[in-house]
Amino acid sequence: MGENAATRNHNNHQAFGVVSIDVPSQDTSECFDDDGRIKRTGTVWTASAHIITAVIGSGVLSLAWAIAQLGWIAGPAVMFLFSFVTCYTSSLLSECYRTGDSVSGKRNYTYMDAVRSILGGYKVKACGLIQYLNLFGISIGYTIAASISMMAIKRSNCFHESGGKNPCHMSSNIYMIMFGVSEILLSQIPDFDQIWWLSIVAAVMSFTYSGIGLGLGIAKVAENGGFRGSLTGISIGTVTQAQKIWRSFQALGDIAFAYSFSVILIEIQDTVRSPPAESKTMRKATKISIVVTTAFYMLCGCMGYASFGDFAPGNLLTGFGFYNPFWLLDIANAAIVIHLVGAYQVFCQPIFAFIEKLAIQRWPDSYFITKEFKIRIPGYRYPYKLNLFRLVWRTIFVIFTTVISMLLPFFNDVVGILGALGFWPLTVYFPVEMYIQQKKIASWSSRWICLKMLSMACLLVTVVALAGSIVGVIFDLKVYEPFKTTY
């Protein structure tokens, strides 16, 4: 399966905007894998680190608010439930890395490759559509989160300088525009996702602001002299009964968003060396990373709720539950911005590559689409290759996401919608369906019924969470004027 397998895989990758390097198969097994590619060196620990880096992100900032809607009983219970379901379905998905035999079967290099090899048909297109819509939504969510953090730095300094007398109201629009301009410039860097240091910077930044949020929560609990909150969450009176219901539903979406990593699990698994079987290594890595992540989430979410009770802010570091030390808040919010500036590009690169590949296939002789101009940059060895189509298309994409963000700048609601949209199809449905097909589980057998019941139950959670988040947007729009409202 040397050259033919490599060629097939190259075509699969190109069809969905993933750039790969094909290496011809060699006789020696010391440097090359069974498919002719350079030998993988990943271990259970490197895979665990990749998962933790991918999972712990801006979603952690909304967990205190989510637990506040559900209370001390349901909040942690729901978080444990999501962690269990994610761990279980991830173990099913890891079995689909190789089609057929889990040791010697054909390798699937991406999530999409696995769906194509095992399920095929219209489900491949459905999976692609959901993936790209999810990535598009994440770009909007990151624009909102980054602008809120930039605004929080300005408000924190303003509040400190006025001694708390100035409410420091301001519009988020200018900060979204600033973020958009930076992304327009960065989006012109080809293959940005291959810059290895980006993940390291993102990991350091995410642990920085999450750690600061946790530390401030612990300090606030100590200052209050005890834990705040109630067993059932935010009380009727603080919100209406209808708001209590819808907010509880939305909280499910926020928690689901915090556990979203299944879409990149196959890609991470492709870095793991073999033997032992990749699925065995990934099951261990998934368990380790889920335990670490859940413990971290519990600390951040529960400490945030214990600090503020019913009034836990939607974004722990920008909701101004904390005011001092203002310089520490500035560091935390700056870390969020740095993290999201890079993360935006990482998540948008597959969309960019996919559209550009389609354009080249559709108009291969177009000067506008295919021509590259070499521009010499002082201090750099290689010239920058400017492509007009890439310049125009990526700029329009960033402007579009920025405008949508300015129209709907609601962090919690958008996070809830993203979590709901991505949870069932990508974390549950496709892994379950692929596992059933891969293991040839008989219809209406006890295991088949249990897997289908799990999928249907998670579909119900997704529908409920999506409804709650959409209602949240509707409530917010009643008091919001696009491009005018200040915070």
What does this structure look like?
The chain is mainly α. It has 2 domains: 1-39, no CATH class; 43-479, Hydantoin permease, CATH 1.10.4160. Helices cover 67% and strands 2% of the residues. The strands form 2 sheets. It has a two-stranded antiparallel sheet with strand order 1-2. A two-stranded antiparallel sheet has the order 3-4. A hairpin with an 8-residue loop joins strand 3 and strand 4. Helix 5 packs antiparallel against helix 14. The longest helix has 40 residues, at 122-161.
What is the CA-atom radius of gyration, in angstroms?
A: 23 Å
User: Level of helix content?
Assistant: 55-70%
In N-to-C order, the SSE pattern is HHHEEHHHHHHHHHEEHHH
Count of DSSP E strands?
Answer: 4
Highest-level CATH class of the largest domain: Mainly Alpha
Order the strands across the largest sheet as they lie in space: 1-2
Quick structural gist:
This protein is an all-alpha fold and 487 residues long.
Supply database-style keywords:
single chain; 487 residues; mainly alpha; Hydantoin permease; 2 domains; two-stranded antiparallel ribbon; 15 helices; 67% helix; disordered N terminus; AA_transpt_TM; transmembrane
